[in-house]
Amino acid sequence: MFNKIIFFLFFSCSFLFANINNVFDIQAKMLDNIALNLEFNIDKKAYLYSDKIKIKLLSQDKDITEFLNFPQSKQYKNYQIYSGKFDVLIPLGLINNLDEFSLRVDYLGCAYDGFCYEPLAKKIDVKKNANIYEISTSQIDLKQFSTPKDIKTDKSGNSSNHQNIAGNLSKNSVFVSLITFFGYGLLLALTPCILPMIPILSSIIVSKGDVGKKHSFIISLVYVFSMSIAYTIAGVLASLFGMGIQGILQIPFVIISFSLIFVFFALSMFGVFKFQMPLFIQNFINSKTENKTGFFGVVIMGFLSALIVGPCIAAPLAGALLFIAQSGNILLGGLALFVMSFAMGIPLLLIGLGGKRFLPKPGIWMEEINKLFGFIMLIMAAWMLSRIINQNMTMLIYGVIGIFFTIFMGGFDRAKSTFMKFKKSICIFVFIYSTLLITGFASGATDVSKPLQNIISQKNNNTMDNKEISFKYAKNLKELKDIIHSSKKPVMIDFWATWCVNCKELENVFQDDEVKKKLFEFELVKIDVTNSNNDNKEMMKEFAVYGPPALIFFKDGVELKNKQIVGFITAKDFLQHIKEI
């Protein structure tokens, strides 16, 4: 079995590195000076999509595909394809018997074992010298992806981050691409993307009892590996089907269900009941793991944590998704996603490597530790619910949890030791902050980092500061294009969803006084992609958006691709980004 796996990997990788001209070869030659014959030679391991072959006369910018006689295509799965050898004849009369002309042939192909090549194009130059036609062919470098026909694009300056990443992934070697994405993963490990997973993994390790450093590291490794597999599968599906599996898993019913699961775990930590698997399942797992605690639960939590807790759409992730969607190369795109997400989990591996040194030891403190992780689970439940409830209500929930934390962790008890005094100080700090959150809720505030924002802003009578920015809503692509073409201001399009945490953080950025003043110079449009309907899919596909938040900018009807923003951005960086628009 192992030899078969090695053979499959070797076969797949060798085909991935194969010269593209050996896989899809096109030769052109003149027949009796009356027609140009294009001879397609396709490797036996690959095929071309029949509807992706386009032939254009460049001098007249004329698509002549529909005027040509192609051979009968064949059915493969749900597609019509060509394989092996076939010819396409182009009569010179069709191109007005020109003595000199150039053709462009676009085509897209895949390998039968599952992955696809990026879109390809070949240029064919024909020049008549006396009575002899000189023919030369060259491969066209497709550096830019296609742009909607009725929307102009400003290609000046640099592309946005995720577009640069997609382009680099398509041009660099496989090894360089994977090393690059490993570096991206390390950078993402320093962002809040990975933070929600730390308490989950820590609670898993603590729940295993007195385990050694080696076993703690193995638990972390299994967790990170499962998380990486989940990110890879979700990313590939997101690219292939035009929607993220995370989007499916962010619907209210699913969010509420998983929030209840976290509450269930919290109650178990508080000792309300004892939660464990049936004895016969434990015995089976123990027998398979040399009498050590099994990893099935760790695998499940790692998988679900990636999909449910950490939906972080950042530029590297969006770049990999864009590459997969445009090229269809599932193997390279999937490997890039796996390497990146595994690198994101490096801090989690360090937690496991530290074993008991980084986590409280079980024993007389276990009851306090269980309470601590119980409250962490409650915070995770509230954090997930924040995707479907308003931020104001979220502040109240956090505040109430903080008050209960202070009481149950002994914040008002007499401190008899230095450690107890330290713990009491933390509890009092949590109590003060929780009180501010509840006060902020009463004042209508929405930012947990600025609970008194509304109270302070009431003292400011500046008219501009009190005036609110307003967004138009576009429900379909036609409405969106109408707004773009009719606006006399620059246009900012905000792809947004109720379940998107970074979207809500971005809303707070838009409320910054300086940002707000600048946004009054724009026509603001919001696209609500909470529900994955056909109209939303069409708009996201049009602008290569694979998840919210994403900001698209237009000026004078021209898309500013170098200004596109994917993910969260601070107020300072946002102002710097849009100051020249």
TrEMBL record:
NCBIfam families: PRK00293.1 (NF001419). This is Thiol:disulfide interchange protein DsbD. GO terms for molecular function: protein-disulfide reductase [NAD(P)H] activity. GO terms for cellular component: plasma membrane. GO terms for biological process: cell redox homeostasis; cytochrome complex assembly. It is an enzyme of class 1 (oxidoreductase). Its EC number is 1.8.1.8. Residues 449-581 form the Thioredoxin domain. It comes from Campylobacter sputorum subsp. sputorum. It is a multi-pass membrane protein. The keyword Transmembrane applies. SUPFAM superfamilies: Thiol:disulfide interchange protein DsbD, N-terminal domain (DsbD-alpha), Thioredoxin-like. Gene3D superfamilies: Glutaredoxin, Thiol:disulfide interchange protein DsbD, N-terminal domain. The lineage of its organism: Bacteria, Pseudomonadati, Campylobacterota, Epsilonproteobacteria, Campylobacterales. It holds the Pfam family DsbD_TM. The keyword Cell membrane applies. It is found in: Cell membrane. The gene is dsbD. Keywords: Cell membrane, Cytochrome c-type biogenesis, Membrane, Oxidoreductase, Transmembrane, Transmembrane helix.
